[in-house]
Write a structure and sequence with these properties.
It holds the Pfam family AAA_23. It comes from Nonomuraea turkmeniaca. By secondary structure, the protein is α/β, with parallel strands linked by helices. It contains 18 helices and 14 strands.
Amino acid sequence: MIFEELVLSDVGPFAGEHRILLAPRSTDQPVILLGGLNGSGKTTVLESLLLALYGALTPGSTRRAGSYEKYLRQLINRYADPGRGAAVELAFRAIRDGAWHTFRIQRRWWAVNDRIRDTVEVSRDGAVDIVLTEAWPEHVETLAPRGVANLFFFDGEQIEAFADLEMAKELVRTAIGGLLGLDLVDRLQEDLVVVERRKRMNAVAGEKEQQLLQAQVATLEASRRQEADALQAVDEAERDLGHAQRIVDQTAQRLAAEGGDRYRAREELQDRRHEALARYRQSRAALVEALGGLGPLLLLEPLIEQTVAQAVAERRQTDNQNLAEMLTERDARLLDVLRRQRVSENVRQAIADFFAEDVAHRKSGQGIPQVLGIQPQTLSFAERLLAGELDEEREYLRRSVEELAAAQSSAEDAERAVEAIPATDAVEESVAAYEKAMSALAEAHARWEAARRGSEEAAARRLAADRNVQHELLQANATLLQSEEARRIVEHAERARNTLAQLRAAATQRHTKRIEALILDSLQTLLRKEKLIREVRIDPETSELELLTHDGHPLRPGTLSAGERQLLAVSLLAGLARASGRLLPVVIDTPLGRLDRDHRHRLIERYLPQASHQVIVLSTDSEITSDVLVHLGSSVSHMIKLQFDQETRSTVVKQGYFSDGQEAEGSFPEIEVKQV
Ligand SMILES: Nc1ncnc2c1ncn2[C@@H]1O[C@H](COP(=O)(O)OP(=O)(O)O)[C@@H](O)[C@H]1O
Ligand SMILES: [Mg+2]
């Protein structure tokens, strides 16, 4: 399929009719660049392509939160007459029945009172084709199946979500379904259920039973619709929840940058300063008190040692002198005894001499000057000091000084922390924003929970209704399936359904291997760290995707940078697109926004030119820099510029070419292009 031309009439910012030529000029120039500032209508171009192809059945458009009618109404240019409305027209070529044909789909819509009417008309090779028009939703499935549309037409800003492997699972599942035509199998299965049910219904004989059954079927249908609504509500709630979470993250970041953490902890910080100051004062008082005790004596320790030595010597000398007095008297008595016992004169004289000499020696002392004359209690106090009390005091004082220093430094820290608390009016706004965001998050979470519960309940009710119908039918049918034909159809339908289920499983199994290989190949081509991923595994039952790094561990995309995640998502899409075997144009809206220089070059060199035979790149002017063009140069067919014109209050479409070394008419002089 090749898009040739898109015509927008009063769609979004395009007031009046605008033609955008999309066909590449040659097969080796597949890239068409559509550039424009934000708000110039790039996304509108992507949406218009999808709208033209799929109408109300457009898969997963991000701006389509509300109903289709509301969406169409919003798309009518605000300066146009709503009664005349708007139109998109897409011309493309595609192979059909073995030959190329040109198709043109035109969708118009306009307001009638408060409703929106819309029509579609499809022509083939220049002539309106009524059959094709009437069954367009089926035809488009054979040309560009909705199941794979996401792989070819996507918004670069949003694909990053697919790097979340949970989200990717859904993508892989729809893609596998789409690729293999399994959605057709699914629909067939559903249709068979309907056929079976209808036959059984017809076989119900009694009027009463018929009525009862019809009532139950109506209940079933209603519960189906409720289930779908509930699922949509869950989707919406999930989106809101994500949005609320992002706002919380943003406000928390801003608050942190403004010192909000300290602000919110201000009372605690002030308490801490209070405590630190108290502790400082306490240790200071303790030290002062200690210094009023034995402390100062530490300065006199050598003097005390000398004093004690002197006092001890003085005491020993005095003791000796006192002893000499006592000995003189006893010696006299002993000499008297010796004389009465008639001990010889010689001996007595010798003893008397010895005594006299000993006493004289004691009395004369060691010549120590009596300077201190210290009291015995005082001496023993001084001796205790030296024996350990001074050492203990020294240790105690050392500890007190240390404690004081520690208390002082933590008091200073606490003081600084308090001084750094931002003033209330500086952070008030951020604090309020953060608190509001937190409560919005809590509410969004509660709503999401409620929506999820609602959806579970709706699913349960639908299941019950389903069983009721089934049960009732079987009851009513048990004896009544008389018609041979009806019975045969019911039986065959059941058997066919089982066969289809088996077919689906087998086909999926076989094709997942191929898809794994193709995804791995695009990952390795695109991701910067060549060996980052060694293996891709897809669980054929759950469609769960697992990426294994070179050391065999599963890759957690959360650990990649935003740019890498975006490339990962592009690789997934590219791999799946190749696996689809479909030859469809690729349209990417704003693909480079989040990429750094290296990643940009990867995407530009290795992906864009090879993505398909027609690659329409919608990007902001700032993305298409001259170095981008240098890399893309030879593969670019032409450039289109979308520019909002204040005069006409409309976006205008300008077309330019560059190639063959010369700039053709209508080229954009402000962009310099080097040939490579
Ligand atoms: N019905 C409308 N009438 C006029 N302008 C519209 C209408 N709907 C959207 N716009 C404008 O179109 C612009 C959005 O276009 P969009 O395709 O998102 O641009 P881009 O993708 O280039 O940023 C916005 O400026 C918006 O105001
Ligand atoms: Mg956009």
